[in-house]
Amino acid sequence: MASKIELAYTAGIIDGEGSIAIYNMSMPPHTGKRTHALRVRVGMCDMGIPHWLQLRFGGSVSKSKPKNPRHLMVYTWTLSTKAAGGFLQSILPYLKLKQEQAELAIEFQIGKVGKGKNKPLDILLRETNLAKRLQALHIGGK
Questions:
Q1: Is the pTM of this model over 0.85?
Q2: Under 8 Å CB-to-CB from 2, ≥6 apart: which residues?
Q3: Are the C-beta atoms of 74 and 63 separated by less than 8 Å?
Q4: pLDDT tens-digit map of 33-89
Q5: What's the DSSP call for residue 29?
Q6: Cβ pair 20, 134 in contact under 8 A
């Protein structure tokens, strides 16, 4: 269990360097069936924080080699679906800039039903609506 100080510190990382998004994806790939998935990500040139986040909250860390040789390697921590929803609930009281995004993401994850197979139309429409509202917050600069 993370301390309040760790949760506040982590919220600062998410506010400054993180992204909260609902992705539209094929499930399973190339079948034509669509679903949505919640993801929280943090990308940094130093691997320390992404690895700390992985150890503390789970998820995975990947590295991306830059196309430009002058740029540094980027380490990205990713947390998805239920784990991402629970994580956002734990840091929600400490978020400043991305609190509204986190609230929409939590609402999405709480109402998540199934994986796209025979999903009711009203659920698909709800997920799409929440994804669009979250996307609008990104465009609006929040």
A1: no
A2: 10, 56, 57, 90
A3: yes
A4: 667 889 999 999 999 999 999 999 999 999 998 889 889 999 999 999 999 999 999
A5: T
A6: yes
Cβ 138 vs Cβ 41: under 8 Å: no
- Enumerate the H helices of 43-117 as residue ranges: 48-57, 81-91, 99-110
| 33 vs 27: CA distance, rounded Å | 6
Name the strands in the sheet holding 60-64, side by side, starting at the edge strand that comes first in the sequence.
Answer: 18-26, 34-44, 74-80, 60-64
* CA–CA distance, 102 with 79 (Å, rounded to integer): 13
Q: What share of the chain is helix, strand, coil (3-state, %, to 5)?
A: 50, 25, 30
75 forms beta bridges with 44, 63
Give the separation between CA 50 and CA 65, rounded to whole angstroms: 16
Torsion (CA) 133, 17, 78, 56 in degrees, nearest 10: -120
Angle made by CA atoms 33, 35, 38, in degrees to the nearest 5: 155
Pairing of strands 18-26, 34-44: antiparallel
